[in-house]
Amino acid sequence: MPSIHESKVARHRERMRAAGLRPVQFWVPDTRSPEFVAQVGKQCQSLKGDPAEAVVLRFTEEAASHVEGWE
């Protein structure tokens, strides 16, 4: 017997399908993991003083500015 949560999810999915949508699953790095944090730190340090640093910072700032309407 499905739980209440499972039936709510099933109803939600049916509504989405009826609206012409389909589910898509994305796997992304776990930004909370110590390994991820260490890797980001290592990559940031490798950019320090590199001419590409300014390019990466501009790209990051531009990307971060496109959040209007996010909830």
Secondary structural class: mainly alpha
Provide the domain count: 1
Query: What Rg, in angstroms, do the CA atoms define?
Result: 20 Å
- Number of strand segments: 0
| Mean pLDDT figure | 90
Helix and strand string, N-terminal first? HHH
In whole angstroms, how far apart are the ends? 34 Å
Largest sheet properties: none
Q: Which percent range fits the helix content? A: 55-70%
- Per the principal axes of the C-alpha atoms, what is the gross shape? elongated
Any low-confidence stretches, pLDDT <50, length ≥5? none
Q: Please give the count of helices.
A: 3
What portion of the residues fall into strands of 2 or more residues? under 5%
Strand and helix layout:
Layout: H1 4-18, H2 34-47, H3 52-64
How would you describe what is shown here?
There is one protein chain. With 71 residues, this protein is an all-alpha fold. It has one domain. Helix content is 59%, strand content 0%. The chain is elongated.
Q: Which key phrases capture this entry?
A:
71 residues; mainly alpha
Summarize the structure.
The protein is an all-alpha fold.
